[in-house]
Design a protein that fits this description.
Phosphatase 2c, domain 1; globular; PPM-type phosphatase domain-containing protein; PPM-type_phosphatase-like_dom
Length: about 220
């Protein structure tokens, strides 16, 4: 969070089939957030252009690292979800699976759905040559909260329907209520960690689970 209340957040999930996916995920988060923070300080890009360029910068960083390390960029495969939140306005960029959801007027809705692919368990990593055609960049208004989640939480947090996805509000409602009453950020972070490590979530999916939650003030349970 910056001094003016602006929040930059990113979540990346390395592909299980990629040998160095853990490195790729770290590269993705670092490249995207570094680019956005530099642009906020010195650049003049608007929100959507900033998200698009952040994805491009991430792809370039992955290819650059692959060349300098003597590995294929495919071994660094990772998804990426990035958000810039400025008060009630938010801008999001999304490559691969996982999802971004938003809370508006007390209701959670899909902000950016998982990538729609022809094949089950196939994901287009952010560094892939054809990735730019699959990227999702959106602008959101009247945002009360935003959540970036990896695919390990999809089954718990969102549901696939005949016409797209819908949010499982039962997943977010207790989180909102508990975090609203957390006395300090550290307590809220512990709550999230405990929830993500719960038996219920582990039973639902054994994949890696990453969740970034951003609330625009004030945060009150209701």
């Amino acid at each position: 969070m910056l001094n003016d209340g602006t929040v930059v957040a990113a979540v990346a999930d390395g592909l299980g089939s990629a040998r160095h996916s853990d490195v790729g995920a770290r590269l993705a988060v670092d490249a995207a957030t570094d680019f956005v923070l530099r642009q906020l300080e010195h650049g003049s890009l608007d929100g959507p252009a900033l998200m698009q360029r952040a994805l491009e910068a991430t792809r370039a960083r992955i290819h650059e690292f692959a060349r300098s390390s003597g590995v294929s960029s495919s071994t660094l495969g990772s998804t990426l979800l990035i958000a810039l939140v400025q008060g009630p306005r938010a801008f999001t960029g999304h490559a691969g699976d996982g999802a971004i959801v938003k809370r508006i007027d007390g209701q959670w809705t899909i902000a950016s759905p998982p990538e729609d692919t022809l094949y089950v368990n196939y994901v287009t990593p952010v560094g892939c040559d054809r990735a730019p055609s699959t990227w999702q960049v959106y602008t959101h208004s009247r945002v009360e909260a935003l959540a970036l989640l990896s695919d390990g939480l999809e089954r718990s947090a969102v549901r696939r329907k005949a016409k797209g996805y819908e949010v499982n509000e039962d997943f977010f409602r207790p989180l909102h209520a508990a975090l609203a009453d957390a006395p300090e950020p550290e307590a809220g972070a512990r709550l999230l960690a405990e929830t993500l490590d719960s038996l219920a979530l582990r039973a639902a999916n054994d994949d890696d689970k990453s969740l970034a939650l951003i609330w625009t003030p004030p945060l009150r349970s209701h």
